[in-house]
Each structure stands twice: as C-alpha cells, then as structure tokens.
Amino acid sequence: MEPTLPSLAVLRKLAMKKFRDKEGLYLIEGSAAIRDAIVEDKCPILVLHDERALERSQDAEVLTLAGEKGLPVQEVADGELVRISGLKTAPPVAGVFRMPQNAEPSTLIAGQVVVAFDRVMDPGNLGTLIRAAVFYGVTEFWLGEGTVDVFNPKVLRASMGAHLHATLYRGVNLEQSLTAAVAEGVRVIATEMDAEGEIKPVHPDSRPVVLLLGNEPAGVSPGLVALATEHVAIERRGPVDSLNVAMAGSVLLDRLLAR
Predict the structure, then answer these.
(1) C-alpha–C-alpha distance, residues 214 and 195, integer Å
(2) Domain boundary residue among 47, 65, 98?
C-alpha cells in the first residue's frame, strides 16, 4: 500500500515548528538543493512545482530526475508555493522531506570533529555555519537546548541542503553529552572572548574533538565553558570588536582542520 502523501493544508503549516514536529516533515525550496538531494539518494517524499518550473531548464531537469527516480511529483496552482513557503516570491520547485529520527550522540571515533551549538538563535548564522562545517568535512552536529530548530525554513535556506550530508542531534543536553565526551578523552574546545589559547589542528589518528560554539551576544554558557578541556579565541587585529558565530566558527574550523 502506497504511503499517504501530505495534503496542501498540512504543508502550509510546516513553517511552524510545532507542526513540523507533529508531522515529522519539513520543506526544502529550490531546484539546486532538490537535485542534490536526489542525486545523493536522500530523496524527498514529494516534489512540488508550479507552472513556472516547466519554463526553466534547471527546474524542468529536476522534475525529470524525480520522475526517473519514481518520486511523486505534484503540480500546484499559481501562488500555492508562496502560501506554503511564506515567502513573497517562492522558488518554482520544492521538496517535502521526512525528519531523521536520531537518538542521543554516540561515542566518537579518532579524528572525528563534531560541532555543538549552545543557544545559537539566529537561523541564518546556524544554517551558514552548518554549510561551512560540511564543506570542511564535519558530518555530525549537536544542537543544544535553546538553539533554533535546524529545520526552520531560514536555517534550511542558509544551509542550502548541506544538512542532508550530516547527522543532526536536536535538543541535546550538552552538559550531559560533554561530560560523557570528556570522560572518554574527547577534546572539548570552547570559544571565549578573553581566552589566550590557540586552536590545535586535529589529525586522522588524534583524539576526537567537539567544537562548542555559543549564543551570539552571550557566548557559551559558563557551565559548559567549565566542562571544556581547551579554551580559544580569535585574535582581534582591527577596530571591529567581534564576529558573528557563523564567521567565527568558520575561522576556527579552518584552523582546526588545517592539514
């Protein structure tokens, strides 16, 4: 028996977290992200499009690819994708995906790098940093309590599908997980404005690392800072007093994963 596909009425509610969690679904917009997902065999359960997609080659190619994969493809009325996405101008193609159901973080292996987020609330920063981290080869993220939902549409637009290449743990009790990680010999690196330490690169055969990044104005929670085994900062050399978490995290990842 074929699974029941979500109705348009359900899809219009996915902009809100409580309905995403209730339905276990989320939306990715744009033909590039949908194409990448299908090519990587991380297929949506439904591909939506309006008549504009039939007039643009990159969009039409995605619809053809979805059909070749046997994915359900549904044309919707003009303006429907705007109502679903909440944008004033919505892309002509979107995909509906099931949320992964991941358990608590497991034991890390040698050379592995995880990025943990403590109360990071700006969706654009979270999505941008996930994309940058995946670019550097990070494949696991711990999203601590108080961090914006990773399936928030603004996060997904900023990450541009990068989250599909990673394992996401939502609502992680960071105090508990970091305590366990330290007990297992993991390097836990916390960012601090006044820290004097420099980040040391990780190597394939070295101890695993959790890079802990915090709330934009407040930084990492003091209780979590106390659990860290290393404390680092980025040296300021100009008149600007700080970087947002996406920029700071990208700089630290580049240094951490330098070869």
Answers:
(1) 14
(2) 98
CB-hemisphere CA count at 13 Å for 258?
9
Is residue 55 within 8 A of residue 82, CB to CB? The reply is no
The predicted-structure confidence for 84-133, as pLDDT tens digits, reads as follows 988 888 999 999 999 988 778 878 888 899 999 999 999 999 999 999 99
Quick one: 196 and 87 in the same domain? no
What is the value of pTM for the model shown? 0.90
33 and 141 belong to one structural domain: no
What range defines the domain where residue 86 resides? 8-98
Please give the Cα distance from 125 to 50 (Å, whole number): 30
Q: Are residues 93 and 138 in the same domain?
A: no
Beta strand 93-98 with 25-29 is antiparallel
Q: Is 249 part of any domain? A: yes
| C-alpha to C-alpha distance for 121 and 119, rounded to whole angstroms | 6
Tokens of 100: 């992964």
Residue 21 belongs to a domain with what CATH number? 3.30.1330.30
Radius of gyration over every alpha carbon of the chain, rounded to an integer in angstroms: 20
Count how many domains the chain has: 2
**Helix 31-39 to helix 57-68 angle, to the nearest 10 degrees?**
30
